[in-house]
Amino acid sequence: MSRSSSSFGAFYRRLRAKVGPKVAIVATAHKLARTFYHMLKHRTPFRDLSAQEYEKRARQHEIANLRKKAAKLGVALVESLG
To answer: How far apart are CA 36 and CA 14, in angstroms?
Structure first.
């Protein structure tokens, strides 16, 4: 997982940096199991995101969360150009 170029590998690496390798392995296995269950239940093919696409989506999600927190505090975020 740690060297995989899939979205699961990127998920594992992000989580490993936050909570450590043991918890990250369990969380990634759980994510794989949920994905597999969803594919079987809904009879859908597997569409893997690349690690770059996963990181891009994670960054957008994090920015959205920061905007919500800033709005709750009454502060406006300004994007930098660089």
So the answer is: 21
* Buried/exposed code over 40-66 (b: 16+ C-beta within 10 A; e: otherwise): eeeeeeeeeeebeebbeeeeeeeeeee
Q: State which residues form the domain around 46.
A: 7-73
Give pLDDT tens digits along the chain (82 positions).
Answer: 777 788 899 999 999 999 999 999 999 999 999 999 999 999 999 888 888 898 899 999 999 999 999 999 999 888 877 6
- Counting the structural domains of the chain, the total is 1
58 falls within a domain: yes
